[in-house]
Structure formats: C-alpha cells, structure tokens
Amino acid sequence: MEIKDPAKWIINESGLEYFLKNQVTTNFQEIQFNKTFRKIGKYNRKLPREAFYRKLLNGEYKYRDWLLYSKSQNSLFCFYCLLFAPCKTKFSRSGSGYIDWKNCLLNVMNHEKCIMHRESVRIWYSRQLNNPNCIDNSLKIKIKKEEAYWVKLLHRLIETISFLSIRGLAFRGDNQMMNSKHNGNYLGCLELISKFDPFLASHIDKYSNKGRGNVSYLS
C-alpha cells in the first residue's frame, strides 16, 4: 500500500489499524501545484494552495492536516472520511477523490463544517481510545470529554434536521446569523431550543457569529 497516496489505500481492518497509529498528512511543500491543472468548463484551473489553510479569527492560518493530496489522481481526500465516513462524501470517494478546483475553497470549508466530517473525526478518536497502543491515559480523558460534548451537540442538530425534513420546511433564511429574524427555520429552531437547553445555549454563546474561520457546526 502506498501510504503517501490516499487514492491507493486499501481500506480494510489491517489498514485501519495502521492509520489509527499513524495519522497521515500531506507534505504541502511536495505538491507541484503547476502540474495540478484540470480542464473545468472552458478554463484550465489548478489546485489552490489556500485550500490547505484555514484563517483564524486572530489572523493566523492553521494547516488543514486532514486534507490529503493524491498525486496519481490529482485529487483531494479527507483523511478521516476516507477511513470512517458512514456515507461517502466528495472527499472520500475511494480511488478518485475530489477534483473540482473551481469550487475547491468553498467545498473544503463546507466539508470541514459538515456533520459527516465531524462524525468521521469522532469515530477515529473513538477507535484510538479503544486501542491501548495508540494513546496515553491523560489524552484519552481529554478526548472522551471532547467526544461527549460533540455527541450531545450532534443529537440536537440531527433531531432539528429531522423535524424540519419530515415537515418539508426550508432550512436556510436570508442569512446565517444567530438572533436574526431572517436566519431561517433551522437556526430559528436552535435558538428556540436553546431557551430551555443550557448546553445548547452555552454552545451558541461560545461559537455563533464568530466570523469566517471559526467552526461552530450550527450551519
């Protein structure tokens, strides 16, 4: 198995065991961006370097260590979703990966915020917790607390999504700002629930309306 090329990974139990002990990242410096051009519509487009970094609120940039580049397929993969996503995403198509350079920046950002990505990350950490060779006890305790937090949040988000879907109601409004009268049914429902749910109220207060670069998983 070629470890540096996610398009050639063999996803079986022995492969998963290896990746649980060895998280793979792409060496940004090794990518030859001038050789990543693809014909998209009328134009030739190349993989944007900016896709590998997320701008934080303080102006600093954080490297997206989960985003992997396949040289053989000239495509991108999500490390966590390729291994553990319950359903395939744009970034976990085995053997092919993501190739739409035109919408790359937007789709990378949206993928990072989506529930499927978060669930894949949770599964990866959960599997590590159950493997005595992967992680020390102090980190296990920290991860368990983090996992419990996001599981509680996911339950609330999934129930809200299910409620709106069953009734055929639109999710989005004119904006995605909390406490706005025009933020749509989804965020509106979360605001209503938070009035009676201290956990959700605390999460909204901590993460909502923080600006681009902050991931709240509310939208």
UniProtKB/TrEMBL annotation:
PANTHER family reported in the protein's UniProt record: PTHR45749, ZINC FINGER MYM-TYPE PROTEIN 1-LIKE
Tell me the protein's name. Answer: Zinc finger MYM-type protein 1-like
